[in-house]
Write a structure and sequence with these properties.
By secondary structure, this protein is mainly alpha-helical. The protein is 70% helix and 0% strand. Helix 1 crosses helix 3, helix 1 runs antiparallel to helix 6 and helix 2 packs across helix 3. The longest helix is centred in the last third of the chain and has 37 residues. About 11% of the residues have low confidence.
Length: 116
C-alpha cells in the first residue's frame, strides 16, 4: 500500500507542479520525510491524509484506490497502474492458493463423511 500511495503522491505533486519541499512545508514535515512517503519507505502518509487531500484537492478514497491517476503528459508509463496490476496479481495468487487449500479441505471432509 505504501508504494501505491507513494506513486500517487508523486504523480499528484508533479501534476500540481510542486516540489517535494513545498508539499512537505504544507504538511509541516521535512522534505526527507515526505520523500520517504513518495518512495514507499514510510507509512506516515496515513497521519497526514487529510492535509494531503487538502493540498491536492482530492478525497481520501482517491488516494487509496488502485486506478485512475494519469501522470504528466511527458511520462510514458503510469506507475500507479503498474503497482495496481502488481497488487492485483498478488491478490489473485493469494486467492488461488486459498482455493487450493479449501479444495483439499473439502476433499478430506467428503472422504471422512463416506467413512462414517
Amino acid at each position: 500500500m505504501n508504494n501505491l500511495v507513494g506513486n500517487k503522491l508523486k504523480i499528484l505533486r508533479k501534476n500540481k507542479k510542486m516540489s517535494q519541499e513545498e508539499v512537505a512545508d504544507f504538511l509541516g514535515i521535512s522534505q526527507s520525510a515526505y520523500a520517504r512517503m513518495e518512495s514507499g519507505e514510510s507509512s506516515s502518509w496515513a497521519n497526514y491524509i487529510l492535509k494531503i487531500c487538502e493540498v491536492f484537492a482530492i478525497f481520501p478514497e482517491e488516494l487509496l484506490k488502485v486506478e485512475d491517476l494519469k501522470p504528466d503528459a511527458d511520462r510514458k508509463e503510469d506507475p500507479s497502474r503498474e503497482t495496481g496490476t502488481h497488487l492485483s496479481d498478488k491478490v489473485i495468487e493469494q486467492y488461488e492458493e486459498r482455493i487450493k487449500e479449501l479444495r483439499k479441505i473439502i476433499k478430506k471432509l467428503k472422504k471422512e463423511r463416506k467413512l462414517k
